[in-house]
Pyrimidine-specific ribonucleoside hydrolase RihB
Amino acid sequence: MAQKKMILDLDTGIDDAMAIAYAVADPTVDLIGIIGSYGNVYVEDGVQNSLKILELLGATDVPVYQGLAHSSESDHFDRMPVSAQIHGNNGIGEVDLPAPKRPAETGDAIDFFIKMVKKYGKDLILVPTGPLTNLDAAIKKAPEIVDEIGNITLMGGAVTVPGNVTNVAEANIQQDASAANNVFQKAPLTQVGLDVTLRTLLTKKETQQWRDLGTQSGRAFADIVDYYIKAYEVTSPDLHGCALHDPFAVGVAINPDFVQTISLNMYVTTDDQYYGRTTGDPARLSDPNPNVKVAVNADVDGYLKAFMDHTLTLFKQN
Ligand code: CA
């Protein structure tokens, strides 16, 4: 089977770091680039974190581009205090990784993405796991890419469960609901939202397996993710673990059998009361060929096994 190409669009906090590890580890995809977003952290810090994590994993040939720094509706971004609580001030659990030896690319992130769609077409997978600001900007600049790209699988939103920022809104969507609305109305998508990511949990039992490898990456990832698990003990004590939000989206992008989906024409509400809600678009409910596949059930055991197999193999080597 020919390897698919993958681009990640990340606001690199802790689960984004695990998404990088999954993408680097999976032999069926070739990670060809990372685009930086804001969200868990400021965009500059997220880019540095992506470079550090790639270096830790020996993946020093993956280019990292800095994307847009704030939402399409504002002129700046203020990091939410809860983001520091969950991901640490530095976004990677206060773990002090060495400064990256190489810089981010100097080119424009949106242009890089559009160019890769033109080059790889149906063989390209995009996985956004932060706000959809970069993808929205790319669609506005080159609308035809929605028909040319092979697969967009995003982490964001909540359809069958409440949100995590407000009762209706999940954080990635809520950061830029207007951009998300454009994406949800125009692009073919698979939505991996809180509906399924709150069921794919990691505990200290699994991070101990990484630590026991005795390698630099095994120890660092155990420290980083233990910080996340500890934060979840405070913010979500009912879960008994931390949610594998972003790495689950990468898993589903590669293997759609990890979820069951329903097909819907969707939009994102931008009124004050229900800001950032992902739901069926009343204007397109009966239109044929719905553009969004919403993940509503997860093969938790199958995914967790793949996640641990991939990460253990990768961390063993680095
Ligand atoms: Ca993220």
